[in-house]
Amino acid sequence: MNRGAFVYRDNFLDRSEIAAATELAAAVEAQRTSVHELGKYSDLRWFQVPLDPKWPIAAKMLAELHVAAPEMLVFYYLEPGAVLHPHRDLTGASMNDRIRFHIPIKTNDRVEFVVNGEEVKMAPGDLWCLDTSYLHSVRNDGDETRVH
Question: 74-86, pLDDT tens digit by residue?
Answer without folding.
Answer: 999 999 999 988 9
